[in-house]
Structure formats: C-alpha cells, structure tokens
Amino acid sequence: YARVEVKGIDLDGRERVWEAEGLLARMFQHEIDHLEGVLFIDRLGPIKRRRLKSMLLKKKERGK
C-alpha cells in the first residue's frame, strides 16, 4: 500500500497511531511482515517464485 495507518505502543507504553506514506509505509509493512512470519517470497507470484527457485538451485549446484 502507498499509505498505511499503524497502531501500536511506543517506548513509554502509550498507545500511538502512526500514519505513513511512500517508503516509510513500505518499511512499516515490511517490519509487520517480520512480526507475522511472512517472508518476501510469500508475496511473490508463481512465475517469479519459480524463477527465484531455479536461480537458487543453480547457485546451490555451483556451491555458492
């Protein structure tokens, strides 16, 4: 999403709402994915996932 609203608790224990756009919104989404156990490959479509898998298998075969 280009814009997000994130609710959470700050370092002082207060509930907060952060609104973010652009790169900051993307960063929030990335970190929330980490907390939820989502990897970037989980967001890939089937074609890109197959390409990535193929590339990684080739590197493994070459010992890299």
What's the helix and strand layout?
Layout: E1 3-9, E2 15-21, H1 22-35, H2 46-62
Antiparallel strand pairs: 1-2
Short overview:
The chain is of the alpha+beta class and 64 residues long. The chain has two helices and two strands, in the order ββαα.
Q: Which terms summarize this structure?
A:
two-stranded antiparallel ribbon, elongated, 2 helices, alpha+beta, 64 residues
Describe the fold and architecture.
48% of the residues lie in helices and 22% in strands. β1 and β2 form a beta hairpin. It is elongated and about 50 Å long. The mean pLDDT is 94.
Strand adjacency order, main sheet: 1-2
Q: SSE order in H/E notation?
A: EEHH
Mean pLDDT across the residues is 94
Helix content: 40-55%
Cα end-to-end separation: 35 Å
**Hey, roughly how much beta strand do the residues contain?**
15-25%
| DSSP helical segment count | 2
Total discrete domains: 1
